[in-house]
Amino acid sequence: QILGAGSQGAVLVVDTGSRFGVSWFPRGAQNPQWFVYADNSGTTAVSGANTIVVLNGESFDTHNIFLSTSSTYRVTPNLPGNYAFFASNQLNAGDGVRWGVRIFKNGGTNIADNIVGQSGTAAETMGVFGIQSANGTTDYFDVRIFQESGSDKAASGTNDTTWFYGFKLPMTGV
Questions:
Q1: Cα 33 vs. chain centroid, distance in angstroms?
Q2: What distance in Å separates the CA atoms of residue 103 and residue 132, rounded to the nearest whole number?
Q3: I need a labelling partner for 75 at 20 to 30 A (CA). Which of 21, 54, 111, 135 fits?
Q4: What share of the chain is helix, strand, coil (3-state, %, to 5)?
């Protein structure tokens, strides 16, 4: 929910369902930003596959670039430039099972990942970060979960562990 405008066009954003609370975010043609999350809807992580994470809740999307239709859940930046991407997910894959979170570009290029072997039997939360250029028209990015347990696993569907955040980096050298 956007509450109002502050200095230099910043907006105050309230995320009542998350631990992030209230923050000021710049708004303008050069600063597309989004924060989307799983709104009590989990993802079934298929063993041995890169499964798109269900992100059906939205805290903010300053340029309406996040698409959350069934099985899509992706951001398509509408301004060319470099973007920073952050994602998190939680899974209990089982002791010793390799699993992780990945960010994909255009459905086939893995731009960032964090794959580890789970230690113990409790669910683990994992994050990933990447920087990548976007052409401003057709490039899109999504979050995927990967695991190798030999069977499908239910990933977390809560907003504090499963989310995707990003923004356009400012131009430099101008």
A1: 11
A2: 10
A3: 21
A4: 0, 50, 50
